[in-house]
User: Fold this.
Amino acid sequence: MEHNPRPRPLEALCLMSFIGSGAAALLYLAGAVFFEKASEIIIEYTSAHSTEQISARYFLTLAVLYILSLQGVIGMWKLQRRGFFVYTAAQLAILAVPLLRMGEDAFSAVSVIFTVLFIVAYATQFRSLKKAS
Assistant:
């Protein structure tokens, strides 16, 4: 049998983050590429009456941040401490970009709770991660 040096909780966190950040990266990338259609969908299915405060560039920025988040998750999957810092910085930027672009209307308590929850959960696994060699 092969020994897996990755703790189960870290594996679970990485898998959940890979799914979440991967899906978000793809959706925001699609939103950037198909911005006109995305705007129609946003207006039709949300409480937003316009999409004047957002742009294809806004969606692209978030897609890039989610890709950075994925890089951090991949780093932690490989047991690299650097991955934790990349992931944390990307997630905090993901929270900040909407606030900077749209102000307090973009604040999401649910997003903050999940972001803090995952960062804290990863921090509990930090000792399993190795320094860069």
